[in-house]
Amino acid sequence: MNGVSIFTTDLAKYSSLAILGTACFVCQEIPDELMRCQKCKRMSYCSAACRAEDFESHEMICSLLQLAPTSTSSSKRREIFEREDPAHDLELDISLLFTAQDKTFREMMVERGNRVYTRAHRDLLLYEPRCAICLRSADDMRTLYDPEYNSLLHCPDCRAAFACSEDHRAQYRDEHSQQVENGEGLTECEMNKRAYEYSLEIVARGWTPMVTLWFPMRRRTEYSPLPSSWQEWFADPSNLSPPDSSQILNKIRTRQLSIPMSILHGMELFDKADADLSSLLTRTELEIVVLGAMEYELLFDGSACFEELLHNLPSVRRLILRFVGPNVRFGMIGPDGTLKEALDWDLCTLCKEKGVELKTSTHPDLYHEYVKERIAQAATGDGPAFEWPDIAVLFNSGLSLNYYKAEWSPTLDMLAESGVPTLCSSFLERESVEDESCLESHRCNIVIKRHKNPWRSEVLMKMVLTRKQFFTYNGFIQGFRGLKERG
Ligand SMILES: [Zn+2]
Ligand SMILES: [Zn+2]
Ligand SMILES: [Zn+2]
Ligand SMILES: [Zn+2]
Ligand SMILES: [Zn+2]
């Protein structure tokens, strides 16, 4: 339960350590001596000046932070922690504690006339420091054992790993300095330091959707096959804008750009499997269905990244994007409380000049249900003739997880039977292996073998409310087309 992924503080101005309370909440600096708020004991300041600057906005959050833990009774929390279960068995319990706090926090905020519950407020709860061994927070220590308890001990190096006691710190030390799964050879401590460095870069530049989330403003005159890596891609000056883009910023941007680049990569591989490389060069219309979209495909103006498809495929005059899945609701609810039917996104001037057409639509249904409905509507004349998309993409779908299996199963069957080229990505290698066997059990004809995606996001993320799990958006990729012959 350590560390903070840098991207949860979207649109906010706080570094990972400021959220954890081990850097100044105002200037993000790491002081020799922390001045921790003695009431909530959660946020810290480097100086009286920084504390004064935050005084007004802190006042309200401070009292809510003090009240939030009361959303779960002490006896309930005592019961969780005194089972003495290993930390990873407590993850579900901890996430339920968080859910209760989150709800209380939100309600209290509205009650007090402040309707602005931001991602940063939520992060303060979500990333409440917890002991890496027993998962107790400082607040648990105070309310359950010792009213005088002040704050957890933190790793002096990364300041993002915590322990409730010297004893637990010693128990965790080895694990903290070992390489983590998917950590690209880095230890947890090093990963935490990287997260702080990345988040400082965002704080320093300010979060601007079209800069932090970004696509290059240029159109290619003809399709040129993708290079083999991000490194090569960023080495091409036409892919760099603004020219002062730093290496860290480039890495941060791969999280967003991973979406169109993975689609292009998949389309290249599908064409190669068909021995038909011409379709990328000549197609004038492209319809993509994004299944299970819920995050950067939709939020924070991130959908503009799809523009990179148009910029790479100059022959395409009409791009149709359909976002289908129950999670489409997140981030797509308009100010009047109804679901937006299309994305608020205007094509860039280069595309407009060229007369390119873009059509987006959102459908909060499971894909197989969506298709059945469209077919039925077409049959009764209530809708246009149904056409299958040119490609379907399932980003980080977790399709093999027990939790989602029932939902994905009929969709996979339908996609395989219809012969729609379908691209699937996953966070971890382990998941891509499970996805592969799931696709095989549905007799999906795998034409793109499971592999490490060269267009994966280069931002390693830490899963919240679980320990020691770093992951990468679109880390692994595979694809199928049609049904495999029996026998
Ligand atoms: Zn400061
Ligand atoms: Zn406070
Ligand atoms: Zn502990
Ligand atoms: Zn550390
Ligand atoms: Zn454009």
From TrEMBL:
Entries under PROSITE patterns matching the protein: ZF_MYND_1, ZF_MYND_2
Keyword list, A-Z: Metal-binding, Zinc, Zinc-finger
MYND-type domain span: 24-62
UniProt entry tagged with the keyword Zinc-finger: yes
Tree of life domain: Eukaryota
Transmembrane segments: none
Example GO molecular function: zinc ion binding
Gene3D superfamilies recorded: 6.10.140.2220
Protein name (record): MYND-type domain-containing protein
Record organism: Schizopora paradoxa
